[in-house]
Amino acid sequence: APNSYRNFVNKAVVETNDRVAANWRKAFETFNSLNNILANVDVITDANEKNRVEGEALAMRGILLFEMVVLWAPQYDASGVNPATDDAFPFTTDPITDINEIPVLSSSDIKTIDQIYTQAATDLTNASTLLESFGKNGTNLSYYACQAYLAKLSLQKGEFGDAEGYADEVISSNEFELTSSPLDAFNNTSNSTEDVYAIQQTLANNTGDRSSGFGLTAYFSSLTESGIGVYRLFSPTFFNANSWHNSPDFEPNDVRGSIDLGVDENTSSDEITTAYYKSVVDNFDEAVSTSKYTSSANVQPVIRLAEMYLIRSEANYTNFGDVISTQALSDLNAIRTRAGISQLTLADFPDQAAFFDSLVIERTREFMHEGMLLEDLKRWGGFIGSAITTASEYDPWDEEFVLPIPRSERDTWAD
Q1: Sign of the CA dihedral 239, 152, 326, 347?
Q2: Among 351, 373, 371, which residue's Cα sits nearest to residue 360?
Q3: 384 - beta bridge partners?
Q4: How far apart are the C-alpha atoms of 307 and 102, rounded to whole Å?
Q5: Closest by CA position to 332, among listed 351, 301, 354
Q6: How far apart are CA 182 and CA 338, in angstroms?
Q7: Predicted model pTM
Q8: Eight-class DSSP state of 289
Q9: In this structure, are residues 314 and 376 in contact, taking their beta carbons and an 8 Å threshold?
Q10: What are the start-end ranges of the H helices in 73-210?
């Protein structure tokens, strides 16, 4: 519903927001399905198959817990937050098989931030052990996907040594390789060389498109045969760093900022060879769409090797305190040069803050539209909104950036 999305634009998400309620409901349906699988996994008699199923179920539960705690709880190390006592959301590992088994909850059933992070880390660690012998595990969740999510989780908690170690495990495995261009990591019908974990899609089985009216392809693609182009960017605010916080401010040769302005309603998804293209559904010449999700027939990357490089760089830099290490700089440059822009040297950074600024802008450029910016801003304590008027600036540590437990859920509780 339009008003539901307008809540997000206005930074005023209410308990009755139907998108929040739908995502909450789907998450807990998934939790219960996974809990039931894990409770009955012993029926699988083949030891290898049992390890694979159990490992993938634990990995899915750990990933979902992490994604939810980022959205439904305050940032782990934010000012004034005590993860050991501050609330996140209710959670149980007990399976429910009958409607009569659904417990009546109360506020005392809400887990703390620490408890949710601990459960997520435990699930991902146990999944890693069970899946390690399967290697890349085809197109399924793998040991490396678990390590990648443990890297994300550790970074978000501020455990930088652990984050660096997990990211290094993925990079050093040599199982993955950066694509020659960042654009090559998208719009593929099979996993690219840098997909650590990706969602497999076909035109008949996907996460959403023009026909369904939801999903990344529907929202981000404006091509006639693909999406409805709900989400569009306007270049004056997109490319001007003085217009809004966290602008990617692309350098001239950066392929991640390349635009095709010759697109029209006859252009097909396989004809797009730039990072952005003129919006087909908007009459303004300066409205552009991202090319990362042009068709629902393509694989949808979730964890890319590029993220592991930038996690290792950020974790290494932060862990070393007042030293910019050659490792942190090398990882940053690996992403820059792949995008077609120049390497940086230690001489380019007069102080620590300058290197951090480069890390921030490189993550913004690389992962634009991939759903990471909010968790990044929460971790960095940055600002969301316009850089011109202070009235539009928002602190990501404010309560308005913590999703509420839906009213439909709380209405069933005992208190």
Answers
A1: positive
A2: 373
A3: 394
A4: 39
A5: 354
A6: 7
A7: 0.95
A8: E
A9: no
A10: 113-131, 143-157, 160-172
Amino acid symbol at 94: D
Neighbours of 47 (CB within 10 A): 8
Contact (CB, 8 A) for 372 and 356 = no
Q: Do 303 and 288 touch, CB atoms closer than 8 A?
A: no
> Which backbone phi and psi does 227 adopt, to 5 degrees?
-130, 180
Token reading at 286: 């300066």
Distance CA 246, CA 47 (A): 48
Q: In this structure, what token pair is assigned to residue 241?
A: 């760093």
The type of residue at 63 is I
Using left for φ > 0, alpha for ψ between -120 and 50, and beta otherwise, residue 340 falls in left
Q: Which residues contact 109 (CB under 8 A, 6 or more apart)?
A: 90, 103
| Element holding 8 (H helix, E strand) | helix 2-9
Rounded to the nearest angstrom, the gap between the alpha carbon of residue 259 and the centroid of all alpha carbons in its chain is: 24
Strand ranges inside 219-331, DSSP E: 233-234, 259-260, 276-278, 287-290, 300-304
> What does the pLDDT profile of the chain (415 residues) look like in tens digits?
567 878 887 788 999 999 999 999 999 999 999 999 999 999 999 999 999 999 999 999 999 999 999 999 999 999 999 999 999 999 999 999 998 888 899 999 999 999 999 999 999 999 999 999 999 999 999 999 999 999 999 999 999 999 999 999 999 999 999 999 999 999 999 999 999 999 999 999 999 999 888 899 999 999 999 999 988 876 655 555 555 677 888 998 999 999 998 999 999 999 999 999 999 987 766 789 999 999 999 999 999 999 999 999 999 998 876 678 899 999 999 999 999 999 999 999 988 889 999 999 999 999 999 999 999 999 999 888 766 555 556 888 998 899 999 999 999 999 8
